[in-house]
Design brief:
- The protein has about 250 residues and is α/β, with parallel strands linked by helices.
- Helices cover about 55% and strands about 10% of the residues.
- It contains 8 helices and 7 strands.
- It has helices spanning about 1-25, 30-50, 55-85, 110-125, 145-155, 175-190, 205-210, 230-245, and strands at about 95-100, 105, 110, 130-135, 165, 195-200, 215-220.
- A 5-stranded parallel beta sheet has the order 5-4-1-6-7. A two-stranded antiparallel ribbon has the order 2-3.
- The chain is elongated, with a radius of gyration of 21 Å.
- It starts with a helix and ends with a helix.
Length: about 250
C-alpha cells in the first residue's frame, strides 16, 4: 500500500505542477486546470489514505477513487479514438484541403494555427492541383478574420492566391465545415475529394462533426505544443464525451 500511496502522491504533485506551469504559457481554459482538478484529490488520497476509514470520510474516499478510475477509462478510450483518426499524408488524396481556424492575436497567427498552416503548406506543395479553404471568422481580441491572416501567410510562403478560398464567417467547427463545403461545392460542382487540417488531438472530433454533415473528409494532423499536450488531450477528451452525449458526433 505504501508504494501505491507514493505513486498517488507523486501523480497528484505532478498534475498540479502541470497546471501551474501551463498557466504561465497559455491562456486559461478547461484543459489548463484539469490536471489540478484530478491531481488534488489524488494528492489528498495519497497523503491521508490511512485516516479515511470511517463515516463520511470513507464515502468521500471511495467516491474520489471511483471518479478517478472513471476518468482514467475515459481518457484511455478517447486517446485510442484520437489516434485512430490520424492519417498519414501519403494516404490522403484531396482536391480541396480545409484548414480549420484557431485563435489569432490581433492580426498575428497563434502558434497552433501556424503549425496547422505549415502542415497544409507541405501538403499543397506536394499536391499542386489541390486548392485550400482557409476558414475562420473574427473573434474576441482579433482585429481581422482568421481566414484573412491564414491566406496572407500561405501567399507569403508561395501558394498562388487563385488556389486559396476564404471562408470568413465561421465561429466554430460545425460552421467551419458547413460554410467551407458550400464554397467547395460551388467551385467543384459537388464532386471534390476533401480533407482537412487541424491539430492532432482534434482530428477525431472534427472528422465526426464533418461526417455528421455529410462531408466525407480525411484529417491531417498538425503538431501540438508539447508543453500543453496533456492539457489539450484532457480538454479534448471532455469535448468528445460532451459531443457524444449531445448527439453531435
Amino acid at each position: 500500500m505504501k508504494v501505491i500511496r507514493f505513486f498517488m502522491t507523486l501523480g497528484g504533485i505532478l498534475l498540479i505542477a502541470d497546471t501551474i506551469f501551463a498557466m504561465t504559457r497559455s491562456n486559461m481554459n478547461l484543459g489548463i486546470v484539469m490536471p489540478a482538478i484530478l491531481g488534488l484529490p489524488l494528492l489528498i488520497l495519497g497523503i491521508f489514505w490511512p485516516r479515511l476509514k470511517r463515516g463520511i470520510w470513507a464515502v468521500l474516499k471511495w467516491t474520489a477513487v471511483s471518479g478517478l478510475a472513471l476518468a482514467l477509462v475515459l481518457f484511455i478510450v478517447c486517446g485510442c479514438l484520437m489516434l485512430s483518426a490520424i492519417n498519414k499524408e501519403e494516404k490522403v488524396e484531396a482536391d480541396a484541403l480545409i484548414v480549420l481556424g484557431a485563435g489569432i492575436h490581433g492580426d498575428q497567427l497563434s502558434w497552433i494555427l501556424t503549425k496547422r498552416l505549415n502542415t497544409a503548406l507541405h501538403y499543397l506543395e506536394n499536391h499542386p492541383d489541390c486548392v485550400v479553404v482557409v476558414t475562420g471568422g473574427q473573434g474576441p481580441g482579433e482585429t481581422v478574420t482568421e481566414a484573412s491572416v491564414m491566406a496572407k501567410y500561405l501567399i507569403s510562403r508561395g501558394i498562388a492566391p487563385e488556389r486559396i478560398v476564404l471562408e470568413e464567417e465561421a465561429t466554430n467547427t460545425l460552421e467551419n465545415f458547413a460554410f467551407s463545403k458550400t464554397l467547395i461545392d460551388e467551385r467543384f460542382a459537388g464532386e471534390a475529394r476533401m480533407a482537412f487540417v487541424t491539430t492532432g488531438f482534434h482530428v477525431y472530433r472534427a472528422g465526426r462533426v464533418a461526417r455528421a454533415q455529410g462531408l466525407a473528409a480525411q484529417g491531417l494532423a498538425a503538431p501540438d505544443a508539447s508543453y500543453v499536450a496533456l492539457n489539450n488531450f484532457m480538454r479534448e477528451s471532455v469535448g468528445i464525451v460532451v459531443y457524444a452525449l449531445l448527439g453531435r458526433i
